[in-house]
UniProtKB/TrEMBL annotation:
Regulation: Na(+) is not transported, but it plays an essential structural role and its presence is essential for fluoride channel function.
Family indicated by similarity: Belongs to the fluoride channel Fluc/FEX (TC 1.A.43) family.
Gene name tied to this protein: fluC
Top-rank taxon, per record: Bacteria
HAMAP family xrefs: FluC (MF_00454)
Amino acids binding Na(+): G72, T75
Name of the protein in its database record: Fluoride-specific ion channel FluC
GO terms of biological process kind: cellular detoxification of fluoride
């Protein structure tokens, strides 16, 4: 692993984390939802963006900067899991199921859609 690789991932991660934080602040200040909307939004959007990136077939530099760095820090698997556990612990069974179906199913669907759209621009 070269220093250039680390810098690409680090720079992408820096901006992805800022974008994630900004999205969370926006959703938490401006909206009230039954589900954890900020995490849902960033994970679904991240799935679409990663699908586009992979479908487009970008080179290693862009994959490291945008895929691993930016999208990797923009999306959040650990927060998604924690919020799911909190829904379960609060006995919000329907919300728990809906949240998981949307995150997993929607994420896979949008990654596929992004991939197919990305392939159109090869």
């Amino acid at each position: 692993m070269s220093i250039f690789t680390l810098l690409l991932v680090g720079i992408g991660g820096f901006f992805g984390a800022i974008a994630r934080f900004s999205a969370s602040q926006y959703f938490n200040k401006n909206h009230t939802f039954r589900l954890p909307a900020a995490t849902l939004f960033v994970n679904i959007l991240g799935s679409l963006l990663l699908g586009l990136l992979i479908g487009k077939g970008t080179g290693e530099v862009w994959s490291l900067l945008l895929g691993t760095g930016f999208i990797g820090s923009f999306t959040t698997f650990s927060t998604f899991k924690l919020e799911g556990i909190q829904l379960h612990a609060d006995r919000r069974r329907k919300d728990f199921i809906l949240y998981n179906v949307i995150c997993y199913g929607g994420g896979i669907l949008l990654a596929f859609v992004g991939y197919e759209i990305g392939r159109l621009f090869v």
